[in-house]
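Bug #77: duplicate submission created two jobs. Keeping one. Sequence:
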Amino acid sequence: MAKTADIIIVGAGVVGCSVAYHLARMGVKGILVLDRGQIGGEASTAAAGMLAPQCEAPGPGPFLDFCLAARRYYERLAPELKEIARTDIEYLDWGILHLLDEEGDEAAEGRYRWQRELGLTVERLTPEEVFKLEPGLTKEVGGALFFPDDHHVNNAELICALAQAARSHGVRIVEGCTVSGFIYDGDKVAGIRTPDEIFTAGYIVLCTGAWSWQLGVLLGRRIPVEPARGQILYAELPELPVRHPVWGKGGYVVPRLNGGLIVGSTVEYVGFDKSVTLDGIRRLSELTLALLPGLAEQPFTRAWAGLRPHAKDGLPLIGPLQGLDRLYIATGHFRNGILLGPLTGRLVAEMIVGEPVSFPLDAFSPGRFGL
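Kept job's structure:
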């Protein structure tokens, strides 16, 4: 006999847990979250936790606007989760440094100009100012751009907090539950099949990250999202070698409050292979020592890899699928899942309950791919 829910969310990463939490906060009952693995078990916990639209966005436009709105949303979300879930997500407003080459960095100078023109806060630092701020960094830099409004969080704690906050509002989360098919009632996707059970629901939301293509196949749709492997190195150190996240040529280092240092990340299109490779360790080690040469004798604790969902045009897909009534997708956030996930969840919840959507999502509609 089929089990019934009002809303089924497939995927318990940052996006799926955020959709569930915000729906529950809006008073929706009967929310069921299904995940093929564990809560946050894929890209969400494999990330570094940076909230860095100014450091990462290629230029002005709807994507930058979305990222800036998502960054602002954390100012409200962090204390809210601390109160509801009793979890500190380590929302740290320390700013982010982007190091410049000694020979000059034309791309960085362009970033500085267009951000100043938009009224965003960005500072150009001399090498002396960089070393005063971060004495442990390499001396072979030509200065830095400092983005004081770019922040970072502990992404693992964020996922735990969102899941706990959702559960505290009555959301049920089932782990180890793989979707094997869909049930239809005319043009409506009325439910989900798993190898063991059938679940029916009024609404279905797919937040399946790099696995969105597979779910699309089951629906007869070509969702243009592919996995991009990102390998990360982690070291637990007696004291933090830097206070700020630092971007250099080829990657970044991000400090944790517990003394940990995250070094990332590769971008590799190797299918669903989550292996940590010797070449990946070599590249990340070289990056670490290029930025922080004083760490040469320090051991690294572990390494891991995650599969980030990369859409064909590099932008997320958020909204309903045409011709499939009451089915929504939220995927393709690529390197910005931690930044965009919480606000994405709120916006999808607003769509479902019929509230005015608080940020325009036209640029991210699945309809741009004919979906």
